[in-house]
Amino acid sequence: MKNSLIIALDFPNKQEVFQFLEPFADEKLFLKVGMELFYQEGPQIIHELKEREHQIFLDLKLHDIPNTVYGAMKGLARLGCDLVNVHAAGGKQMMTAALEGLEAGTLSGRRRSACIAVTQLTSTSEMQMQEEQLIGVSLQESVLHYASVAKEAGLDGVVCSSQEVVPIRERIGHEFLTVTPGIRLSSDSVGDQKRVATPELAREFGAAAIVVGRGITRAANPFESYQAYKQAWEGVRS
Ligand SMILES: O=c1ccn([C@@H]2O[C@H](COP(=O)(O)O)[C@@H](O)[C@H]2O)c(=O)[nH]1
């Protein structure tokens, strides 16, 4: 998981996924399946990607009452994904229930999926957070608070922007995973993301993994673009 580049498969169906993956035939990738693809293709898409020996982040961002999240995670655990997630805003009890569900549903002899919590979406700016969520602290404080609650609930890490990686690692420790979307090369358009960073900057900050979607999937040459992101992300690690 550490030092991974995770490709967000934001496609409407599996035909487009497998067409996208054609040039990557020799690569074992870390792939993120989100709501768009999972709601169309269901669990079968996970089985098919795992058969090809890719690692999977199932990004469904569960957020509901603890009992419902427990049941949902128990079911998802059987898919054997490497990483799953919830929204930290669901609270500590909900996050604990998510972990309990995962543990209850993990098949014997298998490792349970790592579970992380979304703090503040990378498409949220400080002003939006304060005005729309009526949160009266800085965005960094809000992210740090959610990260601390996720740690107390026993989760393995968080989804945050690269900009919050250093304070999270200082407060919670270097083993706590920081998975960072909102990654752009300096030549890319930012789109709907607000808190962005280049792969180089994410590496310098110490992010555990970066998530890249459109910069690769919508590139004229996705394979070349993947190589460019990978080179920038891997750089020379200290
Ligand atoms: O805070 C978050 C949480 C999840 N995401 C997901 O990551 C990718 C990013 O895609 P890009 O095309 O590189 O912007 C996407 O699947 C989001 O659902 C996020 O961006 N921010």
From TrEMBL:
Homodimer. GO terms for molecular function: orotidine-5'-phosphate decarboxylase activity. Residues 4-229 form the Orotidine 5'-phosphate decarboxylase domain. Catalyzes the decarboxylation of orotidine 5'-monophosphate (OMP) to uridine 5'-monophosphate (UMP). InterPro entries: Aldolase_TIM, OMPdecase, OMPdecase_AS, OMPdecase_bac, OMPdeCOase_dom, RibuloseP-bd_barrel. It comes from Anoxybacillus andreesenii. CDD domains: OMP_decarboxylase_like. Pathway: Pyrimidine metabolism; UMP biosynthesis via de novo pathway; UMP from orotate: step 2/2. It comes from the Bacteria. The keyword rRNA processing does not apply. The active site is at K61 (proton donor). It is an enzyme of class 4 (lyase). SMART domains: OMPdecase. The keyword rRNA-binding does not apply. Belongs to the OMP decarboxylase family. Type 1 subfamily. PANTHER family: OROTIDINE 5'-PHOSPHATE DECARBOXYLASE. It catalyses: orotidine 5'-phosphate + H(+) = UMP + CO2. Pfam families: OMPdecase. This is Orotidine 5'-phosphate decarboxylase. Its EC number is 4.1.1.23.
